[in-house]
Automatic annotation (TrEMBL):
Quaternary structure and interacting proteins, as annotated: Homotetramer.
Similarity comment: family membership: Belongs to the NnrE/AIBP family.
EC number: 4.2.1.136, 5.1.99.6
Protein name: Bifunctional NAD(P)H-hydrate repair enzyme
Cofactor note: Binds 1 potassium ion per subunit.
InterPro entries the UniProt entry points to: Carbohydrate_kinase_pred_CS, CARKD, Nnr, Ribokinase-like, YjeF_N_dom, YjeF_N_dom_sf
Domain YjeF C-terminal: 227-510
Residues noted as binding (6S)-NADPHX in the record, renumbered to the chain: 73-77, 140-146, 167, 262, 325, 377, 456
Ranges annotated as spanning the membrane: none
Length: 531
């Protein structure tokens, strides 16, 4: 079990589906640790705390709030929020979608408490947009079908800066981040206990504004089937001992003359991330071109499968990367050779090495093993896994909607190896269903990473980490995280060449952070005998 699964270090944050969250709540309630009404009170209080922080004018008085409550427990939270804000002196109006008689028990109880201080008004066709704050407590985790116009109409004219969403902006599926029908856009979304995939995937970030995850006193953990990557999951800093061969030897296969740039980017990425040696395997016709452009990266001639097999007799070559600029014909002849050694040799397949098998993906899948990583972008993914890609492209008819996690999982299971599905919400899936999300969202947003060659560098980062001994899933998730950190480090104007060159600064920051942790624990240890 890796560290991220044992939860030993804070490298990742678990993302809970609505069903997993419900199971945790139910277990806590069944154990007698907490009641549903207590959880609802804490959820409401957490939203009010977020409002006090985000809207400091509330403390100055004359603050007008509109609370929109739905027919379930999300609406129940709304009644609590309305009461707590009224107790703080706000002027509160509350509207209910549907009838109070059908409310679930805890929501009903809070509706009754609210009625002691204010009216429950029928659902409005529209609102004036003049209040200081609008609370969206219409639908949350229970969203099960597309939201109709009537539901979102009251908030349609309200600027998102005045909207706080409870658990999720209404209309957003929390498991997938996909909009069911139409969805509210909020300034702040307050969720409870743990974030959900939908806060990071697909349309989620565009609708959530800022996500605040508040503790409501629940202790349980989910099955850890999906995590958000918050730091490297595998070691990236080198230890004091060791020599170049102990950090592995990565071989990147290049295409022919005039098409070697992509593989050179990949090789540079693998070298920067710390592979002990990196060699480019080039056809004879491209040898001079590559030699003129390479210094730290070595060169060997690989014309066809026989030459490739010969090069691979060197067992110290422990990680391969094929695809960037390779050409489909060359990919079809070289990929089977790369996979011959089975799990003894890590293999990263990207770009042409994926598209080359679009007509016969099963022939590729039959050869793949757990030491492989496939790194498709959306188009390459659709070529190799047409069915899940088609399902994901369809308008969702009900919630929870199919997510990028679901399709990446299905792909990893089918391929029998780790699959990294690229995007601003990159998903990394392992065949056993474990998933990681590397979200280039919110403060980590890096739209300038959408530049030619960025993916080639990512493939190199993965191959380099695998040469150094990392497992496929850990290497892919860590590389994706570092890739975005490099883009953040460089900033707008970035081109693919800048990514490997930004890595040293990112690694230095990690080294400094690790040093601070080491210094902290040393200080603690040394202080003990003095006490
Ligand atoms: N279960 C608990 O103990 C807690 C739940 N909490 C809140 O409860 C929420 C989940 O509550 P629910 O499971 O009742 O779900 P919701 O309140 O999100 O939805 C309620 C019901 O609305 C109906 N519905 C779904 N989509 C619809 C649509 N498009 N049009 C019309 N009706 C639709 C469904 O029948 C669903 O059961 C969370 O999001 C959170 O805000 C919090 O109070 C924390 C504790
Ligand atoms: N808007 C975006 N925000 C953050 N990252 C992005 C965005 N668009 C693309 N990326 C990332 O940039 C890389 C592009 O890779 P890819 O599509 O293979 O391009 P190329 O083949 O030109 O290198 C991927 O790692 C992807 O996750
Ligand atoms: K909501």
């Amino acid at each position: 079990m890796s560290e991220i699964e044992s939860g030993a270090m804070k490298k990742a944050t678990e993302l809970l589906t609505a069903a997993e969250m419900r199971a945790i709540e139910t277990a806590a309630m069944d154990s007698g640790a907490v009641s549903g009404i207590e959880l609802m009170e804490r959820a409401g209080a957490a939203v009010v705390a977020a409002v006090e922080e985000g809207w400091p004018q509330l403390a100055r008085g004359a603050f007008r709030v509109v609370v929109l409550c739905g027919p379930g427990n999300n609406g129940g939270d709304g009644f609590v929020i309305a009461r707590l804000l009224r107790e703080r002196g706000c002027e509160v109006e509350l509207y209910l979608l549907g009838e109070a008689v059908g409310l679930p028990r805890d929501a009903q109880a809070n509706c009754d408490r609210w009625r002691e201080m204010g009216a429950v008004q029928p659902w409005p066709a529209k609102l004036d947009g003049q209040a200081d704050l609008y609370v969206d407590a219409v639908f949350g985790a229970g969203l099960s079908r597309p939201v109709g116009e009537r539901v979102v109409a009251p908030l349609a004219g309200v600027p998102p800066e005045r909207i706080v969403a409870v658990d999720a902006p209404t209309g957003l599926c929390m498991d997938s981040g996909r909009v069911l029908g139409s969805a509210v856009s909020a300034a702040v979304t307050v969720t409870f206990h743990a974030p959900r995939p939908g806060h990071y995937l697909a349309d989620g970030p565009a609708h959530c504004g800022r996500v605040i995850c508040s503790s409501i006193g629940l202790r349980g953990e989910g099955p850890r089937r999906a995590v958000r990557v918050d730091a490297p999951l595998v070691p990236v800093l080198k230890s004091a001992d060791g020599h170049k061969y102990s950090h592995g030897h990565a071989l990147v296969l290049s295409g022919g003359s005039g098409r070697t740039g992509a593989a050179r980017l990949t090789a540079r990425g693998a070298l920067r991330i710390g592979a002990g040696l990196v060699t480019l395997g080039v056809p004879g016709a491209a040898q001079l071109e590559v030699a003129a452009q390479s210094t730290g990266v070595m060169l060997t001639r690989v014309d066809g499968p026989e030459a490739f097999s010969k090069v691979l007799e060197d067992e110290r070559i422990n990680a391969l990367c094929l695809g960037p600029g390779l050409g489909r014909d060359r990919a079809r002849s070289l990929v089977p050779v790369a996979l011959e050694a089975g799990t003894r040799r890590a293999v990263v397949l990207d770009a042409d090495a994926l598209s080359a098998f679009a007509d016969a993906p099963d022939a590729l899948f039959a050869r793949l093993h757990p030491g492989c990583v496939l790194t498709p972008h959306g188009g390459e993914f659709a070529r190799l896994f047409p069915d899940p890609a088609k399902q994901l492209a369809e308008e969702p008819a009900r919630g929870p909607a199919l997510s990028r996690l679901d399709v990446a999982r299905a792909a990893a299971e089918r391929a029998g190896c780790t699959v990294l599905l690229k995007g601003p919400d990159t998903v990394i899936a392992r065949p056993d269903g474990m998933c990681a999300v590397n979200a280039a969202r919110y403060a980590r947003s890096v739209p300038w990473l959408a530049t030619a060659g960025a993916g080639d560098v990512l493939a190199g980062f993965i191959a380099g980490l695998m040469a150094r001994g990392a497992d496929a899933f850990g290497a892919a998730a860590t590389a994706a995280w570092l890739h975005v950190e490099c883009a953040l480090q460089f900033g707008p104007g970035l081109i693919a060449e800048d990514l490997p060159e930004s890595l040293p600064a990112v690694l230095r920051q990690l080294d400094q952070a690790a040093g601070r942790i080491r210094a902290g624990s040393a200080a603690e240890e040394s202080s003990t005998p003095l006490q």
